[in-house]
Amino acid sequence: MIETADSGRIWLLSGRTSGYALHLTDHGELLHLHWGPRLTLADAEALALLPLAPHRPFESPLDGQEEYVVECGPRFARPALSVRTPEVRGTEGEFAGADVDGDELRLRFADAVHRLGLTLHYRMRDDSDVVERWATVAHEGAPGDPDLELLRADAAVWTLPPREGWRLSQLHGRWAAESRLVRSPLTPGDKVLGSRRGHTGHQHLPWVALDAEGTATEESGEVYGCALGWSGSWRIAVQHLPDGRVQISGGAGYDDSGLLSLAPGHAYTTPVFAGLWSPDGFGGASREWHAWQLARVVPEAGRVRPVLFNSWEATRFDIGEEQQRALAGRAAALGVELFVVDDGWFGERTHDAAGLGDWTPNPERFPGGLKPLADEVHALGMRFGIWVEPEMVNPDSALYRAHPEWVQHQSGRRRTEFRNQLVLNLARPDVQEHLWEQLDGLLSSVPVDYVKWDFNRSFSDAGWPGEEYPQRLWIDHVRALYGLLDRLRAAHPSVDFESCSGGGGRIDLGILSRTDQVWTSDNTDPLDRLAIQHGFSQLHPARVMAAWVTDSPNTLLNGRRSSLRFRFVSAMAGVLGVGGDLTRWSEDELAEARGWVELYKEIRPVVQLGAQYRLRPPEGGLSAVQYVRGDDAVVLAHLQAQHHGLRPPALRLRGLDPAAAYRCLDTGAVHRGAVLLHRGLDTGLVGDLDAAVFRFRRAGAGEG
Ligand code: DGJ
């Protein structure tokens, strides 16, 4: 709901439990008023009467107060908008009007010097606490006027209320160690997170959370969170200003490498930078993010994801039709629902130095093309998926030989061939059209139900020889990727897409709005995964988090041995997949795995679509995560190591009705809700790397 004060200068957006207010002063400055619990319009009007900080010669009264900081005049905080023409740098906007359109508020400003129009967009829905913000910058001049150079155009600036101090939570990592949570006190100055790699990156998820004075816990206290929806280079800057105020700006691009030039008549729309306030701790904030993504971001999120098999760890590049048929037979017998052939099925792709870009089946490996395998997979009752990496090319490929000019390249410079591959310049319309034809042709000629879309190197030579504004390549690459995905989804509505970038190198709200799930990490070690998944769940729901059970020992990373039980219970916290070499699993292992897959199918609506409670973080001892949906609850518990013969602590459950009784479907025992919530559940886990699943159903529910 959006309310406007009679003055026409105060706007109040109200969501499920929170409110957001802004104020246009008599001097035409747009100030932030409130972000927190719901307020009335009268409260917001009272807030607007509070005096600003007194003027001091070296401080700006506007710093830390403005809704969207522009570069100009008495402002020393980091600007969200920085614009220049050859003559004038900075922008100064006059208020030009407000529109309310359903859930969306638009505030318009005009800069007469630059002939620039700035629109700030806000959207808050009644059933959510997420505020979506973005901005549009338009060159409203006439032909012949100088272009506007956009040095920076962030999506939004979030302002936190004055408090004595703040703690910052972030998700950092690298390849095979993504999305690990770290919390630290926020110190004065700027904390900048981002990626200058052309994709979201393994190093940081574009998300931060802040809690005042470090007082929030998993289930209590106020938490603010911000997350960006952009799959290219990006930057989130958390500023702790000299007077203790905190503002968070974020948008596409890390530095000026991707700066844009706007010609008269052209406009730039930023990605969405979403924010939320939660009174219910980090867990409450996560559940609110999850609910919003399931309702508003992820396509058809109400459909549960199938259990998949992926061939990568089992066969790497050494693949062939017979071997894939053998794996498919075993996968189907386990209860797998989707069989995905990973890298190695096309062109000369027998290793990572050739074939990328040539999207036709390798005739020696698949003599009749992919259709016979796809038909067999379908006959086995599974859906059929393939791996592609459309944005890349190996120099040793037919595509590169035909079009060496299609790759990103800086004239006269040496280029980098990470993983023996180059990045195609997707900003080029001819490259876009070629990829469309290749992918549309592939999906039209083979009965493919699922596409795993990979991206295995960062930009390092982002040049476009002969192009006047080569820097637009950074943004246009992402737009072209989004355009291709959108077009393919529209033309092939029954095909699902997975986003992968060497594991979790491209996970953000932008890609999630056009893919069905993401590959969380190339690290499939079930113990390491607990930490990666714990971080991932701070922002994203289990419904999109792919997790595979692979072989033991883990030969890729650490040689760790773990039981099938531990591997399955770890992977069941997301979208379960199997990625081991099933032809080497014993009959006993296959039989056990069949049981786990069956159990997962039973609990998956609760895991994938339920409310998630992180009961205990994975810090060495007992950790657990719980999911609640209607009358059902599921607990996945893991014990890393038992010490000194001590029994692990009881697990205090969450989200149950204290007045109800719950039957544990695994033990048959009936527990009082109040007891599970307060005294807790004994897991019985012992030793090292033990794990268990507990299913609870409200007694009486579904029993007749
Ligand atoms: C990186 C992905 O993360 C893996 O799962 C696999 O698809 C390989 N690429 C294939 O090259």
Automatic annotation (TrEMBL):
It comes from the Bacteria. It catalyses: Hydrolysis of terminal, non-reducing alpha-D-galactose residues in alpha-D-galactosides, including galactose oligosaccharides, galactomannans and galactolipids. Residues 28-260 form the Glycosyl hydrolase family 36 N-terminal domain. InterPro entries: Aldolase_TIM (IPR013785), Alpga-gal_N_sf (IPR038417), Alpha-glycosidase_related (IPR050985), GH (IPR017853), Glyco_hydro_36 (IPR002252), Glyco_hydro_36_C (IPR031705), Glyco_hydro_36_N (IPR031704), Glyco_hydro_b (IPR013780). Gene3D superfamilies: Aldolase class I, alpha-galactosidase from lactobacil brevis, Golgi alpha-mannosidase II. Its EC number is 3.2.1.22. Keywords: Glycosidase, Hydrolase. Residues 623-696 form the Glycosyl hydrolase family 36 C-terminal domain. It is an enzyme of class 3 (hydrolase). Belongs to the glycosyl hydrolase. This is Alpha-galactosidase. It comes from Streptomyces crystallinus.
